[in-house]
């Protein structure tokens, strides 16, 4: 036999059970093309102590840093059919070398096939010969129903648990163990009075562990093949589970062909029975099944057990609703098409879509979304008051819509929704007029006995909230820092309960004041709306709709976006954009009179009347601002500012440098890296700090300075790096200190 090599490595005494490190023993391991053997020493005459046969189902786990931190050893785990070797070494290179070598041997082995896989191939090859197929079923009990437990999976699974490490948080063990446990759950389902929860658990496990899906399909096929009592309650339990599985996920192609063969055989052997009806339903479902995101709900499973359709309520604008029957495969596109036919909207040029909506959130469903998935996911969510909503998705042609059609009513209702949610920026007086039109539409002419809807259904109440908050003092939470300071001072002087009661009392008082102000503002607003409602006497509903839409359509952005909002998905949380106020999200926002471009940071609305902060380029009359890497600020020509831009006004010259650029005032000195020149001075920039040169005094900078008044005294020496010359002297610059050269005495210069 050829050997990879010898290595001295430690091994745990018992496979699969963690033991104290004092019980580690040292062995000499040898890796052959077929097995992993270990000896007591490296002598040729040494007897082999043990061996682990390597097949394609074996697996090896890479060493983990966590294990090294805990034990001081690098751990290599090798899983076999019956044994598990845990090998320990002090060197990482040695551990990696062994892992790669063992994995190479495993990869060289031919894939192993279980007896069930071989029999499935035989049935597929002899599908046209029914007698041969029946003989295969008769001679192989592993293909037929059994009451005995299953000790090994029907399909091959790698030894070890590394296949589903991502699902360990849910408590799953090795796939082989989960497959055996799953068969026990199936047998338990036979005697359950209510099998729905157990079926849902099986579906959830298969949805989490994809490799188990084919295994469970084979197990259910086995239990529905030649049962002791065909058509009994115990037998139908398996057919009902198979029905739910066929509506949740499809098996692999090989198992799918085996399942279809089983269904055809069942229909042939048990015609006109309940079993035959389930088999036909499953066969039809497999042709339409899409991958589900969620397991079917208990309500959906209960419907599937009876092979029925699931009722679903679809709402549309105008407080209307339509009840529909859907299957586990119905998509949002199919529901939209059916609704357009029912509501006579098929000839419309506008685009309609199905939404999931609640009081705070709405999102259009994609065409391929499975409605049953949406129903199930919303049942599990925290928000219970949600609904499926059918409405206009894209406004293509709103001018040619007939005034007496349902589509025109959709336009009116969606325009009102946009107004109530604050998506359309209009004045408060116009909002009151629209609210009066809405009252005229709902109740007709004014009457003191007419039912009044809530103000929230007529007017965007966030305007009143903002008004009350702006006029009142900050709430108690805004003064938390001061409260915390006082609490720290008096924490030992006052009882804790007394202090907390005081804070709660103050909060309650402020809340009560806020509610009182809101009631007052709401009453005033409703009074103003009613006054305008009285003016609309004898106005017809059709005229109300036309007038309302004509006012809303005056906004230039009407119909350009979805209900006046733009939300694009990003990495973070998408929030609704309200044109009437500033918001934060990762979207591009634009309304009349503003220009905002998205940046990496927080996008804010640009008000031309004031300066703002964002990563955009802003320009108005009399200003020039260019974006830099830092914070862009509005440039006011009347004062100096800080940014990375080039600013120029009459009488000044400023060029940007790497540091902070400041406005140059000719009347005073400043600091920046610019070139400054005024009458009577010459300054050139250097690497150091540039200072203004005053002719009346000397200064220090890295510049060349020259003026007529710089007096040179031959009686004393001076220091600078310049060349000085006047009548009767000669000075040459050098690298060191330049001194005056006196012909009458010796001096030092270059």
Could you characterize the architecture of this molecule?
By secondary structure, the protein is an alpha+beta fold. The protein has five domains: 6-107, Roll (PH-domain like), CATH 2.30.29; 115-305, MyTH4 domain (Serine Threonine Protein Phosphatase 5, Tetratricopeptide repeat), CATH 1.25.40.530; 310-394, Phosphatidylinositol 3-kinase Catalytic Subunit, Chain A, domain 1 (Ubiquitin-like (UB roll), Roll), CATH 3.10.20; 428-552, Acyl-CoA Binding Protein (Up-down Bundle), CATH 1.20.80; 571-599, no CATH class. Helices cover 35% and strands 10% of the residues. The chain contains 19 helices and twelve strands. The protein has helices at 65-71, 92-107, 115-125, 130-139, 175-189, 196-208, 212-223, 233-246, 253-269, 274-286, 298-305, 332-342, 371-380, 406-420, 428-443, 462-471, 480-490, 496-535, 541-552, and strands at residues 6-11, 25-31, 35-39, 48-53, 59-61, 74-79, 84-89, 310-316, 320-326, 351-358, 362-364, 386-394. A seven-stranded antiparallel β-sheet has the order 4-3-2-1-7-6-5, with helices on both faces. It has a five-stranded mixed β-sheet with strand order 9-8-12-10-11, with helices on both faces. α8 (233-246) runs parallel beside α10. The radius of gyration is 42 Å and the shape is elongated.
Summarize this structure briefly.
With 750 residues, the chain is α+β, with helices and mostly antiparallel strands. The chain has helices at 65-71, 92-107, 115-125, 130-139, 175-189, 196-208, 212-223, 233-246, 253-269, 274-286, 298-305, 332-342, 371-380, 406-420, 428-443, 462-471, 480-490, 496-535, 541-552; strands spanning 6-11, 25-31, 35-39, 48-53, 59-61, 74-79, 84-89, 310-316, 320-326, 351-358, 362-364, 386-394. The protein is elongated.
């Amino acid at each position: 036999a050829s050997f990879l090599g010898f290595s001295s490595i430690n091994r745990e005494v018992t496979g699969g059970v963690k033991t104290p490190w004092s019980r580690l023993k040292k062995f000499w391991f040898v890796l052959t093309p077929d097995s992993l053997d270990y000896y007591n020493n490296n002598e040729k005459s040494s007897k082999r102590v043990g061996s682990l046969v390597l097949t394609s189902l074996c697996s090896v786990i890479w060493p983990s840093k966590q294990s090294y931190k805990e034990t001081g050893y690098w751990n290599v785990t090798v899983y076999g059919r019956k044994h598990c070797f845990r090998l320990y070494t002090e060197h990482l290179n040695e551990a990696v070398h062994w892992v790669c070598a063992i994995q190479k041997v495993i990869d060289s082995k031919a894939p192993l096939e279980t007896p069930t896989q071989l029999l499935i191939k035989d049935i597929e090859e002899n599908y046209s010969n029914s007698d041969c197929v029946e003989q295969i079923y008769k001679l192989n009990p592993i293909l037929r129903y059994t009451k005995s437990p299953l000790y090994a999976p029907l399909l091959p699974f790698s030894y070890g648990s590394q296949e589903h490490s991502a699902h360990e948080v849910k408590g799953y063990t090795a796939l082989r163990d989960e497959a055996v446990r799953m068969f026990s759950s199936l047998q338990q389902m036979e005697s359950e009075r209510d099998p729905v929860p157990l079926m849902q658990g099986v579906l959830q496990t298969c949805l989490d562990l994809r490799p188990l899906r084919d295994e469970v399909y084979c197990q259910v096929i086995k239990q529905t093949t030649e049962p002791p009592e065909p058509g009994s309650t115990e037998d139908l339990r398996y057919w009902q589970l198979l029905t739910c599985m066929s509506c949740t996920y499809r098996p692999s192609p090989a198992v799918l062909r085996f399942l279809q063969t089983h269904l055809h055989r069942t229909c042939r052997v048990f015609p006109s029975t309940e079993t035959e009806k389930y088999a036909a339903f499953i066969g039809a479902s497999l042709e339409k099944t899409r991958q589900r995101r969620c397991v079917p709900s208990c309500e959906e499973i209960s419907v599937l057990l009876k092979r029925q359709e699931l009722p679903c309520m679809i709402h549309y604008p105008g407080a209307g609703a339509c009840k529909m029957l859907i299957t586990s495969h119905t998509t949002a596109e199919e529901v939209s098409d059916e609704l357009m036919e029912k509501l006579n909207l098929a000839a419309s040029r506008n685009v309609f879509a199905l939404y999931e909506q609640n009081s705070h959130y709405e999102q259009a469903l994609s065409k391929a979304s499975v409605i049953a998935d949406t129903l199930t996911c919303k049942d599990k969510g925290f928000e219970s008051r949600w609904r499926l909503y059918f409405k206009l998705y894209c406004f293509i042609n709103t001018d040619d819509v007939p005034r007496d059609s349902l589509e025109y009513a959709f336009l009116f209702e969606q325009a009102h929704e946009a107004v109530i949610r604050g998506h359309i920026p209009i004045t408060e007086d116009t909002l009151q007029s629209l609210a009066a039109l809405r009252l005229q539409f709902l109740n007709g002419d004014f009457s003191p006995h007419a039912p009044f809807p809530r103000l929230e259904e007529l007017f965007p109440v966030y305007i009143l909230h903002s008004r009350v908050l702006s006029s009142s003092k900050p709430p108690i939470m805004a003064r938390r820092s001061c409260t915390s300071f006082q609490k720290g001072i008096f924490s030992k002087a006052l009882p804790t309960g007394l202090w907390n009661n005081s804070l709660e009392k103050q909060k309650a008082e402020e809340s009560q004041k806020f509610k009182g102000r809101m009631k007052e503002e709401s009453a005033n607003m409703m009074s103003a709306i009613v006054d305008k409602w009285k003016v609309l006497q004898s106005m017809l509903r059709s005229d109300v709709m036309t007038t309302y839409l004509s006012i809303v359509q005056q906004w230039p952005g009407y119909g350009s976006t979805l209900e006046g909002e733009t939300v694009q998905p990003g990495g973070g949380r998408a929030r609704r954009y309200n044109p009437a106020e500033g918001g934060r999200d990762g979207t591009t926002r634009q309304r009349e009179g503003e220009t905002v471009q998205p940046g990496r940071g927080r996008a804010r609305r640009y008000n031309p009347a004031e300066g703002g902060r964002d990563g955009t380029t802003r320009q108005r009359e009399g200003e020039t601002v260019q974006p830099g890497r830092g914070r862009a600020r509005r440039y006011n020509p009347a004062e100096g500012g800080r940014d990375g831009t080039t600013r120029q006004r009459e009488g000044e010259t400023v060029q940007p440098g790497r540091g902070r650029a400041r406005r140059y005032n000719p009347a005073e000195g400043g600091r920046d890296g610019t070139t400054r020149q005024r009458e009577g001075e010459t300054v050139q920039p250097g690497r150091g700090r540039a200072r203004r040169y005053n002719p009346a005094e000397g200064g220090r900078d890295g510049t060349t300075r020259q003026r007529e008044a710089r007096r040179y005294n031959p009686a004393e020496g001076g220091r600078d790096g310049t060349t000085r010359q006047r009548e009767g002297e000669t000075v040459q610059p050098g690298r060191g200190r330049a001194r005056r050269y006196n012909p009458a005495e010796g001096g030092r210069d270059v």
